[in-house]
Amino acid sequence: MPNLNDIMEMAELLETKAVFVSPDRCVTVRNRNASCRKCLEACPVEGALELGMNKLEFNSAFCVECGACTTVCPTEALAPTKPIDGDLAEGIASAMEHAGGHAVFACARVSSHGEGNPEKYAEVPCLGRIEECLLLNVAADGAAAITLVDGNCRTCKYRYTSAGTQDTVDSANSLLESWGAAVRVERASEWPDEVRLRDDDTVALGESRRAFFLRGKEKAKEGAKSTVLKALRQGEKIPTLRERLRVAEDGALPHFEAERRPRTLDALDRLGEPCEPELFTRLWGRVEIDADACSGCRMCTVFCPTGALVLSKEKPPVPEASEGEDESAKAQKEREAARGQYLEFSTADCVQCNSCADICLKKCLTVDPVVRTEELMSFEPRLIWIPSMQKNNMLGKGLRGRK
Which candidate, 131, 86, 79, places its Cα nearest to that of 105? Predict the structure, then answer.
């Protein structure tokens, strides 16, 4: 039977929270020395999030449900539930159809004034909840215009998220421009004419956006409840964080896929071909390693959360013996060691969490926010040569022992 801690963990799943937390995705939980604090920097209130010492904790009592932390988290350790991504995407698709192709998102404060037709826009608690994946997919779906309506943030409890919202708008527009798309994301304090509520609008005939999202939230809650009750009946034990982060045979921590990144790439693919060779972005990164300074410890691959950087199965060629060189077994081993090793790096899987750079003891690895669009849209990883692990490298010995 489950113990008390198991029951408490499962009970937490039934609480109505604006953020669902997956600690094992957090790079700071995986490595306490990781520098990522993006969620704390985006959060407008103190106490809602606590991060450090291999722990990520969310306190719903302090949370104002703006969703800003879920937008900036590179590994999606923080996921929004009010509304969830799927419901928001479904809601804006319906609203865009009613608005003649104009995709409009509005914050709850503006929505409460009752000046917009709820059938023609999608409501979120705060525009800090909006992220690039959603905006790029709306553009790929053929939106004629994309507008975020949020009124006067200076007197709103969410006002500290306004700068983050603008960062998202700028990031999305940069991607749209690099793909030659005509549509751009705009912010406004007034309703677009085609969304403004008119006297002859019969909104009672349709389901309001608020009711739509509440229905989605209840569906998600019922699903979680069913899963928990099933686990309780079967006496299943919930794996601890240590068990979930158990090192694999190759010495690396478990990998996972950040779901929004592939959906964003799919949207870009639907928009067409990129018209710029390089792209400055906060969504992906490009890893470079100074091979002359590298010790070959491969700790960067151990802590990479998404598997963007892994040890390659392809081996570099063994250097040929020079003329007159001793052909002894010792010389052969030295040449074998000199061949080094390959790492495989995939730009599309890199989430720019900087975990690899943080763990690098030699500080020879950098994560560049400027990526090559050809590499981003390619399925082929790039090979990076690094030297073989040094014999006196204790980290290397530990990794070899896990093979």
Answer: 131
